[in-house]
Fold these 2 entries.
Entry 1:
Amino acid sequence: MGCNCRKKRKAKELIKEKEQERDKLLSIRKSWSDLNKQVRRQLTLIQSFGLSMASRGVTSKKTDGPTKQLRVLSCFGNLDVGGELIKCPHLKESKTPGKHYCGECGCGDRKGTHLVSQGEKYSKLDYPILSCPLKMPGFTNYEPSADNEKLPPMSRKAYIDTQLKPADIQRIKITIPDEDEESIIEIQEHLKD
Ligand code: SF4
């Protein structure tokens, strides 16, 4: 009898944990979705570059942790932390050892174009507002995956949208460095091109 009670209690605790995990994920997704709805309206009026610049002054000067974690997932995947999401096909290795850049933006390999998950310098992925050519999760112009992307073979975007749990996102290691003038100038030069 006592043994059954313990099992039931354990099962209830597990269900509660799952529910809390699901609620957390829903709340992360809702916050990007709200931000993106608002920003997408603005994007129709203002060029992406202008918005990136403006975002530094009118909102936080750098993006928040969960958003940067999603951007890093979108670009780098999560194989390095035991996951199964491969990197974006457009992610290119830089000539600078250990650095990467987006090959789809057309901006080449320069200091201001580097996509950095962890580092001491403010980099492109730290901007509060930033667009991705594939409109991937975590970026300001994010668009949810279409239904046909969810069918096998599932797209990377659909995988992030539907398969990842909050714990998978939290496992992505990032740093959010303070703005530094030198990095900002480099990024501004890159975004102007
Ligand atoms: S296309 Fe988007 S997800 Fe891919 S590397 Fe470029 S910015 Fe990252």
Note: The mean pLDDT is 81.
Entry 2:
Amino acid sequence: MKKGEKLILALIGVLAVVSVVYKGWQVSNETEEDPGIPYYSTASSELSDKAGKLLREHSCKECHKLFFLNNLTQNVPSPSLDGIGSLRSEEWLYNYFSAENPQEIIPTRLKPRFKMPSLAHLPEDDRRVLAAYMASLKVEDWYFEETRKMAYEKRTGEEYKPE
Ligand code: HEC
């Protein structure tokens, strides 16, 4: 082998090593910076259990995403409930669940069978449990704006423009 060829081979070798090390460094940096799942609940286990039962009874997850999980929702463009307690107060939620016609509070843009059903017929205790539990579903500060944007766009079908 000529000297020039050796030099080129050596250079390629060095570049390969550098690129592998750089990639590895990038990947490890990404995982270190990953702040994790932004959604959490402050509910006591008693409240979570009671609310969980109601969520199942009333098939909330047939339409809504909660902790990234839902049943068939991909097709129903209803709002995600992740972080809802950072967007709405408990009182607001209680009033919404008590409304005979929730669409007077949030107009729907969906076909009637997909719209939010009224929960006004539920016993007051159940509506309070649901409101308290929904209010406990928080989003970390760093993901608040993003959550607000997604909620707005789901609700209106329009692009969100921060003031
Ligand atoms: C048939 C589908 C469906 C079911 C079942 C359903 N929802 Fe909804 N929900 C919606 C839709 C769609 C909206 C958005 C408003 C609209 O289009 O009526 C909504 C809105 C909401 C909102 C307001 C979100 C916001 O932007 O502030 C909350 C909170 C909520 N639902 C909670 C619940 C809970 C709790 C249950 C179960 C007790 C439930 N939903 C069951 C479809 C549903």
Note: The first strand starts at residue 39 and ends at 41.
